[in-house]
Amino acid sequence: MSNWIGDVFTSDVGWDHLERLVDIGNRMAGSDGEREAAELTRDALVEAGARNVRLESFDVQGWTRGESSITARETTQECIALPRSPADRVTAPLVDLGYGLPEDFEDRDLEGSVVMVRSDIPDHYDRYLHRREKYYHAVENGAVGFVYRNHVAGCLPPTGSVGTDDEPIGEIPAVGVSSEVGARLARRFDGDEIELTVEAEIHPAESQNVHAELGPDTDERVLVTSHVDAHDIAEGALDNGAGTAMVVELANALANREAELETRVEFVAYGAEEVGLVGSSYHAETTDHETIAAIVNSDGVVRDRTLSVTTHGFDELEAAATEIAERYGHPIETVPKMGPHSDHWPFVRWGVPGYHVKSTSDDVGRGWGHTFADTFEKLEQRTFREQAILLTDLVVHLARENVTVEHRAPEEIAAALEDQGLAEGIRITGDWPYDE
Question: N or C: fewer beta carbons within 10 Å in the chain?
Answer without folding.
Answer: C
